[in-house]
Amino acid sequence: METKNAVGRRKTSIARVYIKPGKGEILVNNRELKTYFLSEIHQTTVKQPLTAIQADGQYDIAINVEGGGIKGQAEAIRLGIARALVSVNEENKPALKKENLLTRDSRMVERKKFGRRKARRRFQFSKR
Prior knowledge:
The protein is 33% helix and 23% strand. It is built from 4 helices and 5 strands, in the order E-E-E-E-H-H-E-H-H. A 5-stranded mixed beta sheet has the order 1-2-5-3-4.
C-alpha cells in the first residue's frame, strides 16, 4: 500500500498527515512526537484515533503542522489522522465516528470589532 494523506484543521492550525504501514513511528515537523508535544495530554490526543481502532504501532505517520497553538495543533493532527485512517480502510469509519473523531471543530476566535475593546467587550461607560 502506498502513502495516504489527509488534512486536519482546528482554530488556525492546519495539519497535513501522511500515513503508511510501518512500525508506529510518528514524526511531527521532522521531530518525534514526544519531543514536539511535551505534554502527555497532547500526545494522547494525537494518538486517540489509533487507539480507537486498536492500530497502535501499525502505521508510520509523518505530519506537517503550522499555525495556532499547541492544543489546536494536536487537535488538527487528531482529525487528520482520523481522516487518513478512513482513506486507508473504509471499515475504520464507524469506530472513529462513534468516538466523534471525524467531526471538524469549526469554532474560531471572533474578530475584534471597531469601537470595542475586544470582540464584544465595550469600553467602560462613564455617565459623568
